[in-house]
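During the second year of the project, the team shifted from modelling isolated chains to modelling whole assemblies. The rationale, set out in the original proposal, was that interfaces cannot be judged from single-chain predictions alone. As a representative example for this report, we include one of the complexes processed in the last quarter. Its constituent sequences, exactly as entered into the pipeline, are reproduced here:
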Amino acid sequence: MKVTILQFPGTNCEYDTEHAFKSLGADTEILWHKSQSVPSDTDLLVVAGGFSYGDYLRSGAIAKFSPVMKAVINYANNGGKVLGICNGFQVLTEAGLLPGALKRNESLHFLSKHHTLKVVNNDNIFLKELNKDDVLNVPIAHHDGNYYIDEDGLKELYANNQVLLKYCDEKGNEKNPNGSVDSIAGICNKEKNVFGLMPHPERAMEKILGSDDGVKMLQGFFKA
Amino acid sequence: MMKAIVNVFLKAGVLDAQGKAVHHALTSLHFNNVSNVRVGKQIIFSLDEKDEKKAMTAVTKMCEELLANTVIEDYTIELIK
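Output from the structure prediction step:
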């Protein structure tokens, strides 16, 4: 299993992400955004979190024009598996690989805390190790995590089981920290090979750090 | 040379949390006759182009590709000769 992790100027979660996937037994490579291609042995491409290009203009807006993104879009369109975490999710929506957009949190505050999430759909490679309605404890850390999609787009997401995760309380009741439409925390594309979520599973890999619920999430990619 | 002024705002119907906060602050300063506050951004630049039509086409393309995220934002373009 080879995981390639994208690094833009301002990315800051690439080493956590690398550590997380290494701890699960993957080979990893951090790929600088100037690269024109995705390594051919890549099994999973991760767009890591952070603040690519300082979030200038909009989160992810400049990163989508980085040299590597053409290759990433090709890779995804050919069925390659792509996971965008936090800023990575923002980059993937800006690049048009995932529907919708991420707006400023409704409270206007930067949120950095553990939050519980509910598994909405698990018929995809990412969350197949989990059960529907499982409640996970995973950190969030974002200013622009307020997921927006119009009504028709939302209907389509539900119709194709593309809504993967929702914010909830500890009992699994919907609880919305940032104003996201229907408390959505993570989605995938129609083809179910491109995934995006605002929470950070790579920061929930060890009980001593508050939660190891990220293990079951990331493990999905290891079992085809 | 032409000067382009691009205004980008969240679409009507997309909640503008910053606009709401500014409205709230204005109200607490007793500016009670204010409504419909929207916070946007303005992008100003010079364009080496004489033909207004061509300039408009170019700036529209810039907006569609980069300056606005048309999933959530609308834009207006003003060209000054």
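The interface with chain A takes residues 10, 14-15, 17-18, 21, 66-67, 69, 71-72 of chain B (CB under 8 Å). Residues 52-67 of chain B form the longest helix (16 residues).
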